[in-house]
Specification:
The structure holds 2 protein chains of 2 kinds. By secondary structure, chain A is mostly helical. Chain A has one domain. Helix content of chain A is 74%, strand content 0%. Chain A starts with 7 loop residues before the first helix and ends with a helix. By secondary structure, chain B is mainly alpha-helical. Chain B has one domain: Cytochrome C Oxidase, Chain A (Up-down Bundle), CATH 1.20.210. In chain B, helix 2 packs antiparallel against helix 17.
């Protein structure tokens, strides 16, 4: 395991950011934005997941190989969504 | 590879016992083992048992289909029989047999390692697999009648125990993910000194590609079955249109796993063929890089084509056109492999021992299966033959003609290494001949039946198709006779076969440079690798 600099300050800052973003998700659900409600919710969730992966799971300090393994499934997630939408959007 | 070639004498293997890793006896020495070789052997016994059981279901199905009307079984029993044939063969035999069985045994040996990266995880994955089997057998109390594909909305409504069976498959999938993960780390981290990526045996390349699919695709089917269970138990409307769901969404999710998984079945078999063809042609493999990269290409392209299972389900024609085009992309790396195997054999000193007979059968039958897949990838042709026996014949040519023949090639090739005993060639050849004839009589007739319009899955059919159905059933008996003789040969070889030398085929990959059977630690010293394992004529082409 590599040495890295993230100390307790970083962890607490990330935790605070996660709490704030959770509050944002809850707050936005009370505002009617139509389709944009889903977009905002997914966007906030993605940012939170990225924070967890980068800092709590130490991805930020990992080698390119680990980054490769972490990012590949995201490509396949996009693939399954895009492939399914190519059906449902054009029926 | 190492300079030493061993043609007769047992090499110093570190273990005092000539029985190598098989020395320890008793149930617990197997149940608690962390040895990848023993875990591989346990997988092989388990999966081959379900091969025989699934085969019995197939024979029963064929006997019923000799007559157009209801015969022997009720139609409901027939539905259960073909569902169990499919589910057992797919989930308990053909997916795990080569990767978890032969892969477990030979990946560490091929790369010059003492074990897989996570031996305890390996044992866990076996027992999770067994837990999955127990759950699946438990579901037989109210047996499944949905076909192995679990299509909604029927699977969401039937009284059969879909929830239990899908939980069993969920566990089997988890075992598959753990195995794939273990192999990926093993191949990255445990290669012997000097074993660069381009000195790896091609079996390792194919197993690497297979593991990628296992890790990336299997979670999707796990989640899909979870959604199905939630729909059945909690009434959440994911797939049932009456509850606002979309039944075709289930098929998207299901085939996002189940199409890539056909490459989990075929890629390891292709890896075995890439080992056997050069060894029995006494020639370096032709196009090493092309075969290696085409394995990875098949794994990646395989994710882009799932929609071709759904052309007639009401999917949008835009999606159908896209998936039809993409489907053809998989044909390219597959053809690359076939041409390279043929080029390897060209002007080689080919000998026809049983592993090579099965390898050649693989190439021949898989080409038939693959090319008929091209008919099915074409939108217009698919609409004509979809859900007919043409499909049944097509996937049996790829799965039995391909994967099973590849597995049998591997079993005959590595039997001396795994057991320390030789098989009888006198029994292996007639068994092979009967299987080859029986298989083609059974399934080629089904191409014709399908093209003439006989639908699949139905218990009853119009009388005009009876003659060819009788031919197909007789073929299944010839096939079964061949399989029985082959298993008799396995049993005979296991107990009475003459002792095997370390390297009976004079092959060059690492596993042949240690004892037969190998010692527990595989190699007394970790070998240093200086060359690729295909230097049969001394030169790299």
């Amino acid at each position: 395991m590599k040495e890295h600099k993230s100390g307790n300050v970083t962890y607490i800052a990330v935790w605070a950011a996660l709490v704030v973003l959770t509050a944002v998700t809850v707050a936005v659900s009370y505002v009617h934005l139509g389709m944009m409600n889903v977009v905002v919710a997914l966007l906030v969730a993605s940012v939170k997941a990225s924070l967890v992966a980068l800092f709590f799971m130490h991805l930020r300090y990992e080698s390119r190989l680990v980054w490769g393994f972490a990012l590949t499934p995201i490509f396949f997630l996009i693939l399954i969504i895009a492939g399914t939408l190519s059906d449902t959007l054009f029926r | 590879m190492k300079e030493t070639t061993l043609n007769g004498e047992q090499p110093p293997n570190g273990d005092a016992s000539p029985r190598g890793y098989l020395e320890a006896k008793g149930f617990w020495s197997w149940a608690y083992t962390l040895d990848h070789k023993r875990i591989g052997v346990m997988y092989l016994y388990t999966t081959l048992f379900f091969f025989l059981l699934g085969g019995v279901f197939a024979l029963l199905i064929r006997i019923k289909l000799m007559f157009p009307g209801q015969y022997i079984f009720t139609n409901q029993t027939y539905n259960v029989l073909f569902t169990m044939h499919g589910a057992l063969m797919i989930f308990l035999f053909i997916i795990p047999a080569i990767p978890s069985g032969l892969g477990n045994f030979f990946i560490p040996m091929h790369i010059g390692a003492r074990d897989v990266a996570f031996p305890r995880l390996n044992l866990l994955s076996y027992w999770v697999f067994v837990a999955g089997i127990v759950v699946i057998l438990f579901s037989l109390i109210r047996p499944m009648d949905t076909g192995w594909t679990f299509y909604t909305p029927y699977s969401a409504r039937t009284a059969a125990d879909v929830t239990t069976l899908s939980f069993g498959v969920f566990l089997i999938g988890m075992s598959s993910i753990l195995t794939g993960l273990n192999f990926l780390v093993t191949i990255h981290k445990l290669r012997a000194p000097g074993m660069t990526w381009h000195r790896m045996p091609l079996f390792i390349w194919s197993m690497y590609a297979t593991s990628i699919i296992q890790v990336l695709a299997t979670p999707v089917v796990g989640i899909t079955f979870l959604l199905l269970a939630m729909e059945r138990v909690l009434g959440v409307g994911f797939f049932d249109p009456a509850k606002g769901g979309d039944p075709i969404l289930f098929q998207h999710f299901f085939w996002f796993y189940s199409h890539p998984v056909v490459y989990v079945m075929i890629l390891p078999a292709m890896g075995i063929i890439s080992e056997i063809v050069p060894a029995f042609s006494r020639k370096p493999i032709f196009g090493y890089n092309a075969i290696a990269y085409s394995s990875v290409a098949i794994a990646v392209f395989g994710f882009f084509v799932w929609g071709h299972h759904m052309f007639v389900t009401g999917m949008s024609s835009t999606a159908a056109i896209i998936f039809s085009l993409l489907t053809y992309s998989v044909a390219i790396p597959t053809a690359i492999k076939v041409f390279n195997w043929i080029a390897t054999m060209y002007k080689g000193s080919i000998t026809f021992e049983s592993p090579m007979l099965y390898a050649l059968t693989f190439i021949f039958l898989f080409v038939v299966g693959g090319l008929t897949g091209m008919f099915l990838g074409a939108l217009g042709a698919d609409i004509h033959v979809h859900d007919t026996y043409f499909i049944v014949a097509h996937f049996h040519y790829t799965m039995v003609g391909g994967t099973v023949m590849g597995l049998l090639a591997g079993l005959h090739y590595w039997f001396p290494k795994m057991t320390g005993r030789m098989l009888s060639e006198k029994m292996a050849r007639p068994a092979w001949l009967l299987m080859f004839i029986g298989f083609n009589v059974t399934f080629f007739t089904q191409f014709i039946l399908g093209f003439e319009g006989m639908p699949r899955r139905y218990a009853e059919y119009p009388a005009q198709y009876q003659a060819l159905n009788i031919v197909s059933t007789v073929g299944s008996w010839i096939l079964a006779a061949g399989i029985l003789i082959m298993f008799a040969n396995f049993v005979h070889g296991l107990f009475r076969g003459p002792p095997a030398p370390p390297n009976p085929w004079k092959a060059l990959s690492l596993e042949w440079q240690t004892g037969s059977p190998p010692p527990t630690e595989n190699y007394p010293e970790i070998p240093t690798v200086t060359d690729w394992p295909y230097g049969y004529a001394g030169k790299q082409t």
